[in-house]
Structure formats: structure tokens, C-alpha cells
Amino acid sequence: MQALATMHETLSLWQLLIAVEDPQDTRSYTCEQCWAIMEFLADCGAAGMSPVTVKRAAQKLWSRCPACRAEFDKNFAMLEYAPRNLS
User: For 2-61, how does the pLDDT look when each residue is reduced to its tens digit (9 = 90+)?
Assistant: First the structure.
């Protein structure tokens, strides 16, 4: 599993996911880290996770890297209007 470096330490994807859920953890994430987590969340959505659940998880992430928020908002707006079965 890919490890992503923060300013002071290297965290694996699973460690980043846990930290996002921890209200006591206030570290900022880089755009690279946010996109790695968003890629994971996109995979979860493709596997059948509710778009509402994916968006809720992403919103927790947005507070860690405000620079990414506008891009995430745009992408989620497209997802909400996309056809459900693209196969």
C-alpha cells in the first residue's frame, strides 16, 4: 500500500482514513493525500457504496485541505446527476 508523506511523517492510506475520522486529529493534508483518499472513496462508490455516504466521508476530508474543496464540489455535483448504471 502506498505511503503518503505529511510534513513531519509518512502515513499509509489506512492511517489517513482513520485520522480523517478522528475529531482530535487536526493535521492538514496535502492535495496528494486528499486525492489518494478520494480515489479510495471513488472505488467504494463504484463498488456500490451510497453516494451520500461517499460524500459525507469526503466532506470530512475537505476540512483537511480547503484548496481541494472546489474541485471536490464540482466532481460530486457531476456524480449526483450521473446515470446510476453505466454498464
Answer: 454 444 467 788 888 888 888 888 888 888 888 888 899 889 989 999 988 888 888 888
With beta carbons less than 8 A apart as the criterion, state whether 57 and 25 touch: no
CA torsion sign, 30 to 26 to 70 to 44? positive
Place of cell 457531476: 78
CA distance 16 to 33: 8
Asked whether the CA dihedral 83, 33, 53, 62 is positive or negative, the reply is: negative
Report the distance separating Cα 16 and Cα 29, nearest Å: 9
For the chain, the structural domain boundaries read 3-81
